[in-house]
Amino acid sequence: MMETNRNSFRGTGVAIVTPFHREGSIDFKSFEKLIEYQIKEGVEYIVFMGTTGESVTLNNDEKIAIQNFGLEIVDKRVPVVVGVGGNNTRQVAYQLKETDFSGVSAILSVSPYYSKPQPKGIYNHYKIIAGESPVPVIMYNVPSRTGSNMDADTVLKIAHEVPNIIAIKEASGNLAQCSRIMQNKPDDFLVISGDDALTLPFMAIGGDGVISVIANAFPNQFSQMVRYCLDNNYVKARELHFKLFDIIETIYADGSPSGVKALLEIMGLSKNYVRLPLVKVNKAIYNQLSALHEKLN
Fold first, then answer.
1. pLDDT digits (tens, 9 = 90+) for 200-259
2. CB within 8 A of 207, min separation 6: which ones?
3. Counting CB atoms within 10 angstroms of each CB, which of 144, 147, 258, 266 has the fewest?
């Protein structure tokens, strides 16, 4: 198993988008530009093929190409996390066996969606994944997308009993649940925000950082906000939180990652193309994002 410093995942990771051309193929030129932008602007690590990377619309060959290309461009300058998950435990385990994770620091694995498994099923799913993964595992709880919640008791049981699972990306929006996890977790188990708008209060109760969508567009400002939180400088952190708050809310107003892809086009960083079943944001939201971006600048 690859040795990974857990502190590498304190701070801001960006759930980077996968840029596409008009006809739907991957736009690797824009992808390189975005990766360089993230590293230059100071994020702590990059997550490929998460929800924001539209991983569910990528075929296996595309996933391999994205991972290999991303690792080549990053060139060990920051840690790389790769999304590997699903609601078919055997298939995820097979994918972990068949994939070369050389150069990858960890995987991000979403809680099984659609099936609505019981807590015991979630526990056993992650135990099998952790046993097959050659790199550490970050769990991902996002009930708004999966249709089921990983409750605090399940998370804590996994955190205490499965050593290769080092963290959870928590996007339930339930700060009481997050508090329960932070209160009772092992000291070295990381709790990472999965909600940009709630990251500041999440950090205030003991969070370790964020895997962010808005950092695609504002990596410097958002990662600095998180660093202020880690330094307990909540006066400075609040300034950046409120500066970005309106645009954070707006990128989710008509679907994600449609919103952040529209914003990236406004900024000249990549084109505004998503794969079905996603579609572009409506014109009103696009104009609102444009106005908010202009205001921020």
1. 999 999 999 999 999 999 999 999 999 999 999 999 999 999 999 999 999 999 999 999
2. 178, 182, 191, 192, 193, 199, 229
3. 144
Q: Point out the catalytic residue in the list 63, 169, 185, 261.
A: 169
Distance, in Å, from the CA atom of 5 to the CA atom of 69, rounded to the nearest integer, reads 23
Which residue in the list 45, 123, 126, 140 is annotated as catalytic?
140
How far, CA to CA in Å, does 220 sit from each of 39, 134, 141, 146, 265? 10, 32, 26, 30, 18
| 169 is an active site residue | yes
Please tell me the distance from the alpha carbon of residue 72 to that of residue 80, in angstroms, as a whole number. 11
* pLDDT classification of 297: cutoffs 50, 70, 90: confident
Note if 113 is an active site residue: no
The H-or-E segment that residue 43 falls in is none
Domains of the chain, each with CATH number or no CATH: 6-243 (3.20.20.70)
DSSP 261: H
Helix 119-132 and helix 89-98, axial crossing angle in degrees, nearest 10: 10
Buried b / exposed e along 224-234 (16+ C-beta atoms within 10 A): bbbbbbeeeee
Backbone φ and ψ of 250, nearest 5°: -75, -30
DSSP 3-state assignment of 168? strand
Q: Where are the alpha helices (DSSP H) in 143-251?
A: 143-146, 152-161, 175-184, 199-204, 219-230, 234-251
User: What pTM did the predictor assign?
Assistant: 0.97
The Cα–Cα gap between 115 and 108 comes to 19
CA distance 73 to 19: 15
Residue showing tokens 């959870």: 168
Which residues are CB-neighbours of 187 under 8 A, at least 6 positions away?
A: none
